[in-house]
Amino acid sequence: GVVSTLGTGSSGINAEYGLNSKVYDVSFAPNPGRSFHTVAVAASDLQVKSFRLEGDRISLVREKENVVDEQENRVQVWKVSWSCLGTSLCTTGDDGLLRMWKNSAHWECTRKLKWNGVEP
Q1: Could you tell me if 82 and 27 are in contact, meaning their C-beta atoms sit under 8 angstroms apart?
Q2: DSSP per-residue string spanning the chain
Q3: Residue 62 half-sphere exposure toward CB, CA atoms < 13 A
Q4: Whole-model pTM?
Q5: Closest CA relative to residue 47, chosen from 12, 93, 5
Q6: Complete edge-to-edge strand list for the sheet that includes strand 57-61
Q7: pLDDT one-digit tens code per residue, 57-112
Q8: Which residues, listed in sequence order, are joined to residue 39 by a DSSP beta bridge?
């Protein structure tokens, strides 16, 4: 489906935040004491958004840190899964690779594996 219920009012998140493709998976990162929430969305590409809930408003935070490396983010993503601390992310997509992502100044792919565990 299309993400349209996370925002407030009739516009929703897909109109406000640019998620205008089919969504195949959504995963919230574990939140061990952070003042914000982070969600990963598997769609035509990987999208990561961090936000604060303030009453009935949603405000994006950490927008520069949530940019995903364009070189590795050209594949339709089917599944996303967070580490137990919410500091790294794994994705699978159309190309059959498992990608491991880590955030330093932005989300970058740190490792790729084929289904049989071999690095491409």
Answers
A1: yes
A2: ----SSSSTTTHHHHHH---S---EEEEPP-SS-SSEEEEEESSSEEEEEEEEETTEEEEE-TTTTPBPTTT--S-EEEEEE-TTSSEEEEEETTS-EEEEEESSSEEEEEEE-TTS---
A3: 19
A4: 0.72
A5: 93
A6: 25-28, 37-42, 46-54, 57-61
A7: 777 777 777 778 777 777 888 899 999 988 899 999 888 899 999 988 888 889 99
A8: 28, 49
* CA nearest to 41, candidates 59, 61, 27, 60: 27
Longest Cα–Cα distance of the chain, Å, equals 47
CA distance 63 to 51: 9
Give strand pairing partners of 12.
Answer: none
> Going by DSSP bridges, is the β-strand pair 88-93/107-113 parallel, antiparallel, or unpaired?
unpaired
